[in-house]
Design goal:
- There is one protein chain.
- The chain contains 11 helices and 23 strands.
- Helix 5 crosses helix 11 and helix 9 packs across helix 10.
- The protein is of the alpha/beta class.
- The strands form 5 sheets. Strands 1, 3, 4, 6, 7, 8, 9, 10, 11, 12 and 13 form an 11-stranded mixed beta sheet that branches.
- The chain has 3 domains: about 70 residues, Sandwich (Immunoglobulin-like); about 250 residues, Rossmann fold (3-Layer(aba) Sandwich), CATH 3.40.50.1110; about 90 residues, no CATH class.
- The longest helix has 19 residues.
- InterPro entries: SASA, SGNH_hydro_sf, SIAE.
- Keywords: Hydrolase, Signal.
- This is Sialate O-acetylesterase.
- Its EC number is 3.1.1.53.
- GO terms for molecular function: sialate O-acetylesterase activity.
């Protein structure tokens, strides 16, 4: 009986061990990929336990050696050069060799959020000038990786997808905002750009946030667990982080662009904390504070009063406390009867200008519209001060969408005058105004801009 017991025990041990007959790589490594330039990047994969893997990098003709651990995993850190390519990378083990071809070195950006980030040139109503944009989308130095949509209750080590060269055929089904962002960057930096698109239409921020955030914040956990099922997106906390983010956290990126918020408008009161915690958790997972640039959602005719403008104001306020972040305002390109504005060109352009100025120091122009700073009560009038207000102007005969309130907290429409890049407000209904709000409705499309032609964000001064 004893030999049989030993045999059974041995077989059970084997069944519990990961067995890899050949080297395997995660899907984020494939032909046509882009690696982050001038960085120490990670390469990793799986093979037999204890197997030695030889990695050869084409840009420096160097060989690196690494052994798999007891879990049959291996990981290697290598230095990348300045932008260039195409190169090859080979991975050789005892049983097989994998050679990745047409690899570029450049700038890699993660592009995430819900439907306005996922939206492509051929999605439903498409985008402005779609036919012409698709036709000219021949950019061999822009590479596209689309993460297949999937959920998971636990963090995954791999995800489906493959890198593709940007052509009219591949661009037309890729994120339009991300494509226009990359086209602008590539034109200005003259380096390869890699885009990882892992957006999911209708998704709330809770599903993109790892479990650790909810474990540490009971208020966020309670809010997340109250989400109701929808036909367009999963709502269980952390499911998309587990299935679509965790596996690529070892992959070096330059930064993230994000377009989301519509699905959180009913929980605008906790969104600021949730969003900040989500960004912080992603940075912790990657191991560094990469830039995080996001789009303030556009005006839209939501049925619920004020929820749309409330979430926009929360997004504005987060900008004041979230380091290494930036926000673009798109109230001037809104179509209040369409939650998916078709002008994705300007969204991508504004995000790119943010990155060019704040990440790459390659753009000297203004990248923000006027952002509320403070108010100064002046008896019967009140003065509003903005940051990024040089050349403050109204596109129209008079400034619109300002309201003031006195000690009773009741808001009334206000008469506005621009003086020295500030706005002076008054109302016959308010003898001594103390607070101001601007663009305060779901469908407000205000006409206040700065000299760079960028719109002012909605705000409330309370």
């Amino acid at each position: 009986m004893k030999p049989k017991f030993l045999i059974v025990a041995f077989l059970m041990t084997l069944a519990c061990q990961p067995l890899w007959a050949k080297i395997e790589l995660p899907h984020i490594f494939s032909d046509h990929m882009v690696l982050q330039r001038n960085e120490k990047v990670s390469l990793w994969g799986w093979a037999n336990t204890g197997e030695e893997i030889t990695v050869h990098t084409g840009w420096d003709n160097q060989e690196y050696h690494v052994k798999t651990n007891i879990e049959a995993k291996w990981k290697l850190e290598i230095d990348t050069p300045e932008a260039g390519g195409p190169y090859t990378i080979s991975f050789k083990g005892n049983e097989n060799e994998i050679v990745l071809k047409n690899v570029l070195i450049g700038e890699v950006w993660l592009c995430s959020g819900q439907s306005n980030m996922q939206w492509s040139a051929t999605t439903n109503a498409g985008i402005d000038n779609a036919e012409e944009e698709i036709k000219k989308a021949d950019y061999p130095n822009i590479r596209l990786f689309t993460v297949a949509r999937r959920t998971s209750n636990y963090p995954q080590d791999d995800l489906p997808g493959t890198w593709e060269v940007c052509t009219p055929e591949t661009m037309k089904t890729f994120s339009a905002v991300a494509y226009f962002f990359a086209r602008r960057l590539q034109g200005e930096l003259n380096v390869p750009i890699g885009l990882i698109d892992n957006a999911w239409g209708g998704s709330p921020a809770e599903v993109w946030t790892p479990r650790s955030v909810f474990d540490k914040n009971e208020d966020l956990k309670a809010s997340a667990e109250s989400l109701e099922e929808t036909p367009w997106s999963p709502v269980s906390p952390s499911q998309l982080y587990n299935g679509m983010v965790h596996a690529i956290t070892p992959f070096k990126i330059a930064g993230t662009i994000w377009y989301q918020g519509e699905s959180n408008r009913g929980r605008w009161d906790v969104y600021g904390k949730l969003f900040s915690e989500m960004v912080g958790s992603w940075r912790e997972a990657w191991g560094y504070d990469f830039p995080f640039y996001y789009v303030q959602i556009a005006p839209y005719n939501y049925k619920e009063a004020e929820q749309g403008v409330r979430i926009r104001d929360v997004q504005r306020r987060v900008l004041e406390t979230l380091p290494n972040s930036g926000m673009v305002v798109v109230s001037d390109i809104a179509t209040i009867d369409n939650i998916h504005p078709t002008n994705k060109q300007d969204v991508g352009l504004r995000l790119a200008n943010l990155a060019l100025k704040e990440t790459y120091q390659k753009y000297e122009g203004e990248v923000y519209g006027p952002l509320f700073k403070e108010v100064h009560p002046l008896g019967k009038k009140i003065e509003v001060v903005f940051d990024h207000a040089k050349g403050l102007m109204a596109k129209g005969k008079k400034v619109t969408h300002f309201e003031v309130a006195g000690a009773d907290g009741v808001y009334h429409p206000a008469k506005a005058a621009i003086k020295q890049d500030k706005v002076i407000l008054s109302s016959k209904m308010v003898k001594e105004p103390l607070n101001v709000r601007f663009g305060w409705s779901n469908i407000a499309e205000p006409n206040l801009f700065n000299g760079a032609g960028l719109p002012a964000s909605a705000f409330i001064s309370e």
